[in-house]
Design goal:
There is one protein chain. With 106 residues, the chain is α+β, with helices and mostly antiparallel strands. The protein folds into two domains: 63 residues, no CATH class; 36 residues, no CATH class. It contains two helices and four strands, in the order ββαββα. Strands 1-2 form a two-stranded antiparallel sheet.
Length: 106
């Protein structure tokens, strides 16, 4: 799938209300889902630093995710894995950090 820049993407025409200032929005760069919150370009830019600051730039406002402690074995190299950022559904597929990076091509 080729990446489309904002310049290539057609504007979506509609009738929405800005959730911040209450102004009318007649076109957006995306088609919002029904009931979703939309902002006019000015309010979006004005509140951008506040949104990014609350989320730490990572898309959530909950802070760091706690690690899950356990006793697993890396399925690729056999090293002991004692901490993961998630609870694995299938312990036989657990990978250590180095093997995970290697399998992802990083």
């Amino acid at each position: 799938m080729a990446y489309q820049s904002d310049f290539d993407r057609p504007m979506v025409q509609g009738n929405w209300t800005c959730a911040d200032c209450g102004g009318t929005i007649t076109q957006l760069k995306f088609d919002p889902r029904p009931g979703s919150t939309v902002y006019c370009p000015d309010c979006y830019k004005k509140n951008r630093s506040q949104r990014d600051g609350n989320r730490g730039g990572f898309g959530n406002d909950r802070g760091p995710k706690p690690k899950i402690q356990g006793n697993w074995t890396c399925s690729m190299c056999g090293v002991a894995v004692t901490e993961l950022p998630f609870n694995p559904k299938d312990p036989s597929t657990v990978k250590c950090f180095d093997c995970y990076k290697q399998s992802r091509g990083r």
